[in-house]
What does this fold into?
Amino acid sequence: MQFLQILIDGFAISSLYGLGAIGFTLIFGVSGVLNLSHGALMVTAAVIAWAAAGSLHTGPYLGALAGVAASVAMAFATYLLVVRPIQSSRRIPREEKEIFVLTGTLLWGIMLQEAIAYLFTSNPKTVLPLVPGVVSILGVRTPAQEILTAVLSWAAIGLLWLLVNRTRRGKVLLAASINPRGLTLLGFELSEIYLFVWGLYGLLAGLAGVLLGAFLGVSSDNVGTLTASAFSIVVLGGLGSVSGSLIGAYIVGYLETITAYVVSPSIRTIPVLLLLVLAVYVRPQGLMGRR
Amino acid sequence: MKRTPERILALAALAMSVGAPLVARAADPIKIGVIAEVSSISGAAIPQAAKLAADEINAAGGVNGRMIEIVEYDDHNSAADAVRAFQRAANQDKVHAVIASYVSEVVLALEPWSGRLKLPMITPGAASDVISQRVHDDYDHLKYTFHGYLASTFLADSVCDGLKVTGVNTLHMKTAVVMSEDAAWTIPLDAEYLKCLPKIGIQVLDHIRLSPDTTDFTPIFNKIEGLKPDVIVTGISHVGVQPTVQWHDQQVPIPMIGISSQATTSTFYKDTNGATEGVIYQTVSAPEVAVTPKMIPFTNAFVKRYGVTPAYCGYTSYDQVYYIADAIKRAGSTDPDKLVDALEKTSWSGTIGKVEFYGRESPFTHAMKVSPEYVSGLLVQWQGGKQMTVWPSEIANAKMVFPAFVKLPGK
It folds into this structure.
């Protein structure tokens, strides 16, 4: 019974982790940016969805849409206000740009976190579930929202796979991650591709944020943890590798769930951190890393 | 004779020059520092309620003609920030008393500073017994600290008293699991729960302390459900929204009764999307029950000004501004030692009851007296989006109602 419970809960949380991390890895793969405001984007989406549904009475679906839209808007803002000015600045030496982007996005994330705490307080918010009620899976009482979380996460991941592998637009993305200079030589506008990928990233992070808000609830205090968890998953899976991130998400999700059920919920994240340290020693490029 | 008017003028000038500082001093405001975590709903109620009280006192002429000025500090729920704020309040802003925090860890960090800087401090919401134990053990140094909210032991006793009537007598509960967050205030709370629950005839099946960082409570509820208790007795304050929503969404069939500080705020219903329906929490104040004649007028004034009902620490903070002002009036001075003496003699009928403090001989020195005669607890249940009082029966305005997924003993 407990085995089945771990299987179900672990699957739902891992799918959500996968969805959250996949956007993070995509942005790194295509534009070389490690966005440390990732958690803030997810929390923005959840809080806006909560506020829209609660204060404007839009209902759960419109609220969720508003949350995702807010995340897309914030992703564009992150790119246009923080990342691009640093990348195009002539006064920052080329070899220091990455560290500037890291610092810039980290500070941007803190600014967003403080703004959310100021406007909506730091109390946790829970997004209205899109589907209420519980379903019994072989005797395990599972909230319907938890099942929907897994289904929607995988649907989004599946759509992303189709986009990257089956459409022209997606193939351009793939090319940009492999050889951006080659792509510009073929006449593609890199800045346009970057805008597209940031929009896509906002969509993925927003969806992950809204689903997390409905599944477990989020507060502005979670910003750092969410960024750290996406970072751990991506490092474990291999920076820039989408399939690696998915495998990483499942390892992290199940390791956390097993720890919480079998040992204690209080030390839930500790084995993951130990694993991460081990991974950096033994296989620094990550499971599927190519850099 | 010719010179007389000049002499009178000179005398008048002399009198004025001597009197001037006296006049200016009488008009100097009485400054009360308020240190709280402003970005949380409960924390924000502390300065909000204090300002409301100060405005009322000032509108009625102040204290012997002196106006009350509230000086606010945000401690971001950090002990280090709170200590810096306290030092600034004492050394730079020269406040005369401080109302500080609803977090025991923060108050315990401030307590020695209150002693060192000789600045009287009252907490409106922290609960740890250690606050008043320290005053008892080192009175000469730490007498400047007052515990203006129920100590954890009294909170646990109040829950047990209420549970005896509601849970044992009415619902025939026999077993419980104690579920508390890991924090300073729950150490004495849990110790008392484990003592008082068996006394009212409830067997404690397990005692779970959870990390305040927990986001997924499924494993905890799962474990509790496996033990099949009749009730979950809670001790939560730093967490609130997430366990409540997950309890509801996962349809955990066991009622939750106990301390749940966040549930005392009126926004909790919205924050949890209504998942708090059926949750019963202990408190000393309810928005619609006249525990004292001052409670409802204060609640209404607070709602009118801030749009939400005050959290539990709003009631205490409001009363504290009043009884600090009263103590200054009685002491005839803002001298810290005289103010402490006057505060010790406080007997103030406030919003939550009659406030008096235990003396030096009590192990709870400077903690608020708790009994039906002074301040005592209520059990309030969220019903249809409203906070309804279900115990004590003399003032209850509703009967207990639980959501359909909760299975009561014997049903």
Summary: Residues 18-222 of chain A form one domain. The mean pLDDT of chain A is 91. Residues 17 and 103 of chain A are 24 Å apart (CA to CA). Residues 2-31 of chain A form the longest helix (30 residues).
